[in-house]
Design a protein that fits this description.
The protein is α+β, with helices and mostly antiparallel strands. It contains 2 helices and 5 strands. The termini are far apart. The structure holds adenosine monophosphate and zinc ion (ZN).
């Protein structure tokens, strides 16, 4: 999508601190980190929200999960634990309409979330 912030990051039109990239996903540091590790994993394809996913997106989801685990390993939080968050829609606080999975770690994370 031409006016999508995260599509522009995928295309390299907006700078981001990318930590990983493969054929289907990009991972980059959140600009407003909420934990020592706060990386966003996104599909290169414009998927507006988690709620837009269907069973046909199974292969993409497998790549997303693989990317999350690779990022967690590289960040050194795979062993200590990390949280994967995908805010979907207004009540969850989704602010960017290109699906993104937050990977948070490096400290004890509270529960329940706000
Ligand atoms: P959400 O509120 O779940 O939609 O998450 C959107 C996230 O994107 C927030 O944590 C923002 O800090 C982050 N964000 C917004 N713009 C950028 C950007 N240009 N580079 C990196 N992260 C961003
Ligand atoms: Zn997009």
């Amino acid at each position: 999508m031409s006016d999508c912030l995260f599509c522009k990051i995928v295309a390299g039109q907006i700078p981001a601190t990318k930590v990983r990239e493969d054929e289907h996903t990009v991972a980059f540091r959140d600009i407003n980190a909420q934990a020592p590790t706060h990386v966003l994993v996104i599909p290169k394809r414009h998927v507006p929200a988690f709620g837009a996913l269907t069973a046909e997106d199974g292969p993409l989801l497998a790549h997303m999960a693989n990317a999350v685990n690779a990022v967690a390993e590289a960040e050194g939080v795979a062993g200590t634990g990390f949280r994967v968050v995908c805010n979907n829609g207004a009540h969850a606080g989704q602010t960017v309409d290109h699906m993104h999975w937050h990977v948070l770690g490096g400290r004890n994370l509270g529960w329940p979330p706000g």
